[in-house]
Write a sequence for this structure.
């Protein structure tokens, strides 16, 4: 089965539409999964103790953006911040609160990645692997794969085989970069993609 992984949309309607069109062109029968930060919280972390009644005051909501989000997604740090600072009720907030922290798919796990410790230059995560597994994540807005303690920059359009290996796959970001990943769960292969 094929899965199209995309994350870090940050309410960018043009970038999201471009990536979704590319997915439809490259892998029309794939199941799309979001890796969080679908929305952009416009309230900074320094104002996390403030409370807001209207969801329109805390997030970017361009016209037509929500209609593009027809796929399941994990919760990102942007969604967590929106939930924390909202005191009012809203149907969209109810939906955001339901996003899980992790989605399990055949042969892999999907998580945003902000839950882990990150450090260094380049800024890299410490991935808590369980056995030999593939973990798909986002958060840093940088396409990469992590295997055997090494961080590697992938080439777009090239398929990488991970069968029987423990690896972390950063799908990059939709916003600004228009990056996504195609995962084949039968072959455990990953193809990094970039829409125009």
């Amino acid at each position: 089965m094929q899965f199209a992984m995309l994350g870090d949309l940050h309410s960018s309607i043009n970038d999201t539409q471009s990536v979704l069109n590319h997915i439809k062109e490259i892998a029309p029968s794939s199941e799309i999964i979001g890796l969080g930060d679908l929305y952009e919280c416009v309230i900074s972390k320094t104002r996390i103790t403030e409370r807001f009644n209207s969801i329109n005051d805390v997030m970017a909501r361009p016209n037509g953006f929500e209609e593009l989000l027809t796929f399941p997604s994990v919760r990102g740090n942007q969604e967590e911040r929106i939930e924390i600072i909202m005191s009012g009720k809203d149907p969209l907030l109810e939906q955001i609160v339901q996003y899980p922290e992790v989605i399990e798919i055949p042969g892999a796990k999907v998580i945003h990645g902000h839950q882990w410790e990150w450090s260094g230059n380049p800024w890299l995560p410490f991935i808590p692997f369980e056995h030999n597994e593939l973990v798909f994540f986002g958060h840093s807005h940088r396409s990469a794969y992590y295997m055997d303690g090494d961080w590697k920059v992938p080439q777009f359009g090239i398929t990488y085989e991970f069968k029987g290996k423990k690896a972390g796959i950063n799908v990059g970001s939709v916003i600004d970069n228009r990056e996504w990943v195609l995962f084949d769960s039968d072959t455990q292969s990953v193809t990094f993609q970039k829409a125009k």
About this structure: The radius of gyration is 16 Å.
